């Protein structure tokens, strides 16, 4: 159901009339009273608590506001009004049906971490305004999981959130990732999580502008084709598991020498092509998972099988810190090698009439034996 434009903006003036408006407090005023003292919810749907340091925040007395089963946006606005001029380290809204998130819902509240889950949201903006007004310099983590978000929403209106480090849009209804969403914006973003959507199309340079992106999770989608132009070069973690990929485009990983982990489990990949993987195989800390694919172990794998010395007998080698490339996958065919772990394969075991080229063992990187 569409929302009338006139109803999009939360009536902050109404909150003031009802006596719930709290003017901006100076830091000294906030320090004079406990952070949750101003908070009150007669219905008991929201609560304010103080937390000690967490894995993502070392500070003490963190202010957490958690709202569950909220059905009225007006109620949510009234609950938050006394917190204006204060800080909320983490705000959580779950299992709720408020309908949408107006741009000014958190105006004048210093929020670091926003989490929405299992709460259908039709939009997060007002008209032509930017999303989450007032959080440009404070919001570091934004999670909107299982909120039925779709690709028609203007995600580019989050571009002003220059402090944002993690954006989690997992388990929504996204089908397309637009190039416009992340163009020249979110320059501080380190982690982008898009797992469990319905993404079948990523536009040509959709993620290329996210130059500081460290982790990209595209698992559990409907991807069939990928291009090198989609991705930035600095990625450390790339998860493409459980898609519909049957091949990887030559040059897909060119220049991505920082990669530490690539996950391709549960796709339809049949080979590890040298023109895809050789570009990053020089990274000694690289790990690749390719379990659950119909891998054909034939002559096309000679180049990588030669990188699997089965033992290291040198004392110097045995004393060395284990830094090696890890490859986790199994042959699916032909029958003579079906079920064998890739790291167990040798040139002799490959069903191939052409022998592997002769290389000196000392020139080859070590991989561990399969368990």
UniProtKB/TrEMBL annotation:
Species annotation: Ixodes scapularis
Indicate whether Oxidoreductase appears among the record's keywords.
no
SUPFAM superfamilies for the chain? L domain-like
Keyword Repeat recorded: yes
Could you name the domain of life of the organism this protein comes from? Answer: Eukaryota
Keywords from UniProt, A to Z, are: Leucine-rich repeat, Repeat, Signal
Q: What is this protein called?
A: Putative membrane glycoprotein lig-1
Q: Which residues form the signal peptide?
A: 1-31
Q: Which Pfam families match?
A: LRR_8 (PF13855)
């Amino acid at each position: 159901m569409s929302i009338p434009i006139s109803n999009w903006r939360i009536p902050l003036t109404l909150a003031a009339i009802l006596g719930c408006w709290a003017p901006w407090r100076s830091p000294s005023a906030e320090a004079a009273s406990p952070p949750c003292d101003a908070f009150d919810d007669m219905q008991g749907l929201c609560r304010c608590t103080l937390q000690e340091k967490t894995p993502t925040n070392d500070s003490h007395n963190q202010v957490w506001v958690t709202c569950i089963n909220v059905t009225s946006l007006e109620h949510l606005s009234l609950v938050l009004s006394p917190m204006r001029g204060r800080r909320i380290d983490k705000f959580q809204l779950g299992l709720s049906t408020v309908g949408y998130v107006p741009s000014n819902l958190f105006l004048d509240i210093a929020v670091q971490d926003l989490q929405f889950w299992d709460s259908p949201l039709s939009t997060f903006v007002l008209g032509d305004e930017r999303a989450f007004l007032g959080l440009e310099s404070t919001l570091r983590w934004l999670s909107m999981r299982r909120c039925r978000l779709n690709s028609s929403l203007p995600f580019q209106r989050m571009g002003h959130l220059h402090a944002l480090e993690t954006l989690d849009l997992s388990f929504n209804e996204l089908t397309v990732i637009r190039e416009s969403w992340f163009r020249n914006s979110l320059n501080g973003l380190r982690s982008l999580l898009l797992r469990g959507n319905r993404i079948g199309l990523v536009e040509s340079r959709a993620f290329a502008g996210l130059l500081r992106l460290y982790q990209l999770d595209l698992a559990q989608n409907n991807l069939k084709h990928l291009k090198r132009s989609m991705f930035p070069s600095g990625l450390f973690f790339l998860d493409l598991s459980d898609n519909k990929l049957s091949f990887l485009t030559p040059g897909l990983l060119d220049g991505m020498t920082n990669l530490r982990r690539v996950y391709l489990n549960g796709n339809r990949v049949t080979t590890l092509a040298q023109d895809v993987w050789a570009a990053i195989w020089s990274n000694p800390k690289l790990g690749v998972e390719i379990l659950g694919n119909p891998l054909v172990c034939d002559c096309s794998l000679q180049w990588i099988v030669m990188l699997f010395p089965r033992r290291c007998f040198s004392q110097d080698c045995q004393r060395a810190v284990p830094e090696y490339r890890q490859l986790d996958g199994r042959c699916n065919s032909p029958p003579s090698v079906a079920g064998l772990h890739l790291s167990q394969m040798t040139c002799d075991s490959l069903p191939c009439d052409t022998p592997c080229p002769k290389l000196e063992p000392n020139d080859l990187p070590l991989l561990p034996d399969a368990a």
